[in-house]
Design a protein that fits this description.
Elements lengths: L6 H14 L7 E4 L3 H15 L6 E4 L2 H9 L15 E4 L3 E2 L5 E2 L6 H10 L3 E6 L13 E5 L4 H9 L4 E4 L1 E2 L2 E2 L7 E6 L7 H9 L4 E4 L1 E2 L5 E6 L2 E5 L2
Parallel strand pairs: 1-2, 1-3, 3-6, 6-14
Antiparallel strand pairs: 4-5, 5-13, 7-11, 7-12, 8-11, 9-10, 14-15
């Protein structure tokens, strides 16, 4: 017997289904990573089963690729389609300027590549992901070259962060790109996301950050009041 969904999962499902309805005939679609994006993948698979035809989908992680492929979504890559019509993904935090923290699932580099390759980047989330300032609920993930983990951690700590190397079963978490992730907690939040992003990118060995700035076209939020879309 299937356990009933929690309210939060129901909100994620509603957001994912609403985003799947944005996908049109002949599109090339980017698929995000994480629990909310998984609802999108299932909703897209259902639409394809009902007759929707897309050129293909590009996955932001190996996990999403496997899930989508197993659901008979036609998969492709950026070599065949370097421009996506739409990229849909979740977020860990969303501020009023539609700036994001992403990367709790470890796919932030590939997610940012797909977002930058898309004509339209749509974020799906439950209402708990809305924040007034980034950095209070989730640490900021920074993907790094493993060789440089200690000097990078030292330099980021000088920016006011508390640093943890992400682990999985007591060993360092390895991204799909064979890198490490530093989870960076800023006790006072992130006052200027753009400035911090620039400072982090100036550190040699930093591959990418989980700050997504000036990238989002639209946000779809599922919550107790139903589905809301920003901007309208």
């Amino acid at each position: 017997m299937t356990a009933p969904m929690s309210p939060q999962d129901t909100w994620k499902q509603r957001a994912g289904s609403a985003a799947a309805d944005l996908i049109e005939e002949g599109m090339v679609v980017g698929l995000g990573t994480g629990s909310t994006a998984a609802y999108l993948v299932r909703a897209l698979a259902q639409r394809i089963q009902q007759g929707l035809q897309i050129k293909g989908a590009v996955a932001s992680s190996l996990a999403t690729y496997e899930m989508a492929n197993n659901l008979n979504i036609p998969m492709t890559d950026l070599d065949d389609y370097p421009e996506l019509d739409i990229y849909i993904d979740g977020a860990d935090e969303i501020d009023p300027q539609l700036r994001l923290i992403k990367g709790a699932g470890g796919a932030l580099l590939r997610e940012k590549i797909l977002a930058s390759a898309a004509r339209r980047f749509v974020v799906i989330a439950d209402s708990s992901k809305k924040v007034t300032q980034l950095g209070h609920r989730y640490p900021l993930p920074v993907e790094i070259i493993p060789l440089a983990k200690t000097p990078i951690a030292l330099q980021i700590s000088r920016l006011g962060a508390q640093i943890q190397i992400r682990h999985n079963n007591n060993i360092p978490f390895i991204t799909d790109n064979h890198n490490y992730i530093l989870d960076c907690t800023f006790p006072q939040g992130i006052g200027d996301p753009a400035q911090l992003d620039a400072q982090l990118h100036n550190i040699v060995g930093v591959v990418e950050t989980g700050l997504f700035i000036h990238m989002v076209s639209q946000v779809i939020i599922g919550g107790p009041e139903g589905v809301q879309v920003f901007p309208q």
